Amino acid sequence: xLFTFKDRFPDLNPYWEKYTALxxxxxxxxxxTLLQExxxxxxxxxxxxxxxxxxxDNNGKDTTVQFFFENEGVASxxxxxxNIPSMFTIETIEPSTIQILPKAVFNDMLRELDQNPVFLxxxxxxxxERQRHYMNEFLSRIRDxxxxxxxxxxxxxxxxxxxxxxxxxxxxxxxxxxxLSRIKNKLAGKK
Amino acid sequence: xLFTFKDRFPDLNPYWEKYTALxxxxxxxxxxTLLQExxxxxxxxxxxxxxxxxxxDNNGKDTTVQFFFENEGVASxxxxxxNIPSMFTIETIEPSTIQILPKAVFNDMLRELDQNPVFLxxxxxxxxERQRHYMNEFLSRIRDxxxxxxxxxxxxxxxxxxxxxxxxxxxxxxxxxxxLSRIKNKLAGKK
DNA sequence: CGCATTTGATAACAAATGTTATCGTCCCGC
DNA sequence: GCGGGACGATAACATTTGTTATCAAATGCG
Lengths: 191, 191
Prior knowledge:
The structure is a homodimer of 191-residue chains. Chain A is an alpha+beta fold. In chain A, 51% of the residues lie in helices and 23% in strands. Chain A has a four-stranded antiparallel beta sheet with strand order 1-8-3-6. In chain A, strands 2-7-4-5 form a four-stranded antiparallel beta sheet. The radius of gyration of chain A is 18 Å and the shape is globular. Chain A binds chain B through residues 56, 58, 63, 78, 87, 115, 117, 120-121, 123-124, 127-128, 130-132, 134-135, 137-139, 141-143, 174, and chain B through 56, 58, 63, 78, 87, 115, 117, 120-121, 123-124, 127-128, 130-132, 134-135, 137-139, 141-143, 174. Chain A binds a DNA duplex (30 and 30 nucleotides) through residues 30, 145-146, 165-167, 175-182, 184-185.
């Protein structure tokens, strides 16, 4: 998100440069928890190299909401903005290099930019885009069968299927890994 | 939405008054389609009296996204803002009195207020709220069973269950009306 | 290298949900 | 007021998806 920000709104570059200097870059092994569900978000995470997933625990059932790869950033926005416990856990899937933007720095930035209409419009654009994204995820979960969702994933975002272990894919599709196996089997038979 | 707008941002009242004067009020019988899926949204609809639902057709299967009652407003935002065909149909459930705000008027309003930071912040607040709303719908569909979702509806928004025919409730819960019958039966047995 | 862990496939069975069909009731519009 | 459509319940059966268990292959780490 930071990255798209920077790309799309060059007017803001002086701000980013000022603040990105304050970021630290850390390397984590695979399966490291960056933010624990139930804790308050303290940082914004930006993937320099590697892969993260955002998920939550429902009665012991692991449900993945989204994957993040190189040049994508993530924070539990609700938790971040409202200082409430996060509904999600953020963890590494691969050994990853992560750039960390502390919340305090982010807030400073916001405060400084609050009166800047360019920034406000940029923020709104981002917000609308997120809204569209979640709306689409929502609709896809409702109207598409797991098979359709899997085929769509293969077609639209094959890198995810390649890089992410199958049970996380299943957790993202909303099914068990057993059922995903069945689906793959069925697809293989059709060819 | 217009209404909450008006309530929450009194600074904007002069604007609302100027524009609401341009609105027309129409009475529709039950089951009238206000906006057809596939067509471009031309209006913002505000419920004065009655009840609407927002739904889409998926392979002949009717899926309700949201209900709207008195003092709530709705437009197919995507279609409205981007002038693309609507993904949804909007129709009356009961005989309803609807106030219509034509798109052109809405756009005039936007243009005039574009530079007003109070308005921009208000717009952002609304946007965040919608985002939270859809996020919650999304999460509920994923993690809750139809039974849980129904019980939650009974508890949190009993007026919906009272006023809306059961097959629309089922369509909203993401199940068939047959299955909703089973659920109700099961719940009745437990008492 | 070699072992422990992770990952993925498969089978057998169980549970949840959909489909189709039938029936009775209610209610709205002519 | 009456007839047809809308609404809701229920049964029988079909399909989808989950659960549990087992095994084989791949992978990463010491």
